[in-house]
Amino acid sequence: MVLGLLIVTAVPVVTGVAEAISSKKQQNAQMKEKIKFNMTATLSVDGGPPTEAWIVLHEGRMYIDHPAAPRPGHKFNGYYFKYPSDHGYQGLVSTISDDPPMLNWLYIDKDTGAVRYGSRKETIGHVFGPWGWSENEQFLTIDEDDWRFIAVEEDIPRPKKTAEGKGGAEGEIKGGQDGNNNDVDKDDEDEEEEEEEEDTEKCWAIYLSRDQDGSLKPKAERRVAQQRRNGGGEDEQEEEEEEEDGPDVRYTHKWAPIRLLRKLQLGVDSTWVKGRNGPAVNR
Ligand SMILES: *[C@@H]1O[C@H](CO)[C@@H](O)[C@H](O)[C@H]1NC(C)=O
Question: Which residues belong to the signal peptide in this entry (predicted)?
């Protein structure tokens, strides 16, 4: 009995020292994690005026829905949520659809650097954090850096305008949705089908830029890998992607560094946010 009590009281002291954060500060941070936010980025496309545009999610990727290069999708609408792993990282989740309400994790593709979203299973092996906010709390950070994000111009197939008006994307569908202009729509469709093969348009996707060493890994994990190697570690070296035997091809893209501005939704009751959507995250 007595022994058991001693052990129980001893444990919190040790962890308490490790986290030398006052509980007040911690509470504050916890509050901030729960606030939902949308995001924007400001980008000048082809010499046009710098324009602030919504960050959207579409087919597993994150884009800027820029008026000069529209990419309609579900507006990013997320909050921080502890990612279940040994690292203890702060993860980032977002709704990916309103109806039904679904949440996904945001992560970085370990090979391409593209910002992606998916179930927890899909994030495994990729870079899933740590996400955070800049000192002034305005911008999204990853690995404590708000300037690691870049917008990259990509070619995408031009969306087909189906009569059903599927994509549900605002701004894309022109004209009344009911009745009369069905014929017009059909004509458009026929025309497009003829030249479908090479019918692409530009859009801007979000990526994480590599650090000086060409790595996408968070600092903390790279330190661990380094230590293992120095400490006579086993075959950990393989982690340093060195087995790329293919030709050293470089593709050039238009790209620009961007910051992701958080638009806090302060009016939203955070208990609703957490209670309603929280548990779905782990599935
Ligand atoms: C934020 O994103 C959600 C989900 O897409 C959307 O319903 C909401 O209207 C957005 N907020 C603003 C201010 O646009």
Answer: 1-20
